[in-house]
Amino acid sequence: MRRMERRSLTGWPYYGLALFVFILDRATKAWVVRTLSLGETIPLWPGVFHITAHENAGAAFGLLQGARPLFLFLTVGVVAGLLWMLPQAARRSPFEASAYGLILGGALGNFVDRAATGRVVDFLDVRMIHYPIFNVADSAITVGAGLLAWHFLVRRREAG
User: Fold this and answer.
1) Is 138 tagged catalytic?
2) Among 39, 44, 119, 130, whose CB has the most other CB atoms within 10 angstroms?
3) What pathway is it annotated to (predicted)?
4) pTM for this predicted structure
């Protein structure tokens, strides 16, 4: 019985991480929409980092503008895959499962925007390097993907 209980709880901390990312993403986007007009900016560190209200109908760097059905379809597939893989990853490596949790939370955050309006609310504006404006979900996906890549590279190196 103990083994069954443990098995059924595997992955829940990482689903919790995904939920945290999702809630943080939704809350920050709601604040931006409520507080700023599109294009309006708040310089937190002038010339370096601003909060700028922006909408993006495409993917990262504005690619594939207007491909909403494609993004929704792909996101459903990614989310389904992550929901299936996360408990297995949790049994192998907390690091790997954390990466999946970050990606899952970010994917769900951007999915809600795309499903509701066809656009994603972006607001994190790193002006010092002229980087595209992004959001919490994008950050979580990027950090999660980076951690996952690093994890698999280290694991591969250790294996041989």
Assistant:
1) yes
2) 119
3) Protein modification; lipoprotein biosynthesis (signal peptide cleavage)
4) 0.89
Domain ranges of the chain: 2-159
Set 25, 113, 122, 125: catalytic member: 122
Cross-strand bridge partners of residue 58: none
CB-based burial label for 83 (10 Å; 0-12, 13-18, 19+): middle
As a whole number of angstroms, the distance between CA 107 and CA 86 comes to: 14
pLDDT in tens, 54-94: 999 877 766 777 778 888 999 999 999 999 999 999 999 99
What is the rounded distance in angstroms from the CA atom of residue 53 to the CA atom of residue 155? 40
Nearest to 123 by CA among 56, 60, 62, 65: 56
121 in Cβ contact with 33 (< 8 Å): yes
Q: Is 25 a catalytic residue?
A: no
DSSP strand E in the chain: where? 41-45, 49-56, 120-126
Contact residues for 53 (Cβ-Cβ < 8 A; gap 6+): 32, 33, 36, 37, 38, 39, 40, 41, 121, 123
Please tell me which residue in 25, 113, 125, 138 is annotated as part of the active site: 138
